[in-house]
Specification:
68 residues, mainly alpha, 32% helix
């Protein structure tokens, strides 16, 4: 039901506000496309830190970018 108090059903035109619930799906599709790409492939102006940082590293918080 789209609205329980008034028994309004969900239709093909019902608007859903997904807000933050969509973030994990966006991240997942990006990971499927380019999970093991070096981030410098997509951001070539990024400083070379002397080791490869992949999108997988950033998504899983296993390697980071120094802030200094």
């Amino acid at each position: 039901m789209a609205q329980l108090d008034y028994a309004i059903p969900i239709t093909p035109f019902t608007v859903f506000h997904v807000t933050s619930a969509s973030k994990q799906f966006t991240c997942y599709t990006i990971l499927l496309l380019a999970v093991d790409d070096n981030i410098r492939k997509h951001i070539p102006e990024l400083h070379d830190f002397g080791y490869t940082i992949t999108i997988r590293h950033l998504a899983h918080h296993t390697r980071g970018i120094n802030d200094h």
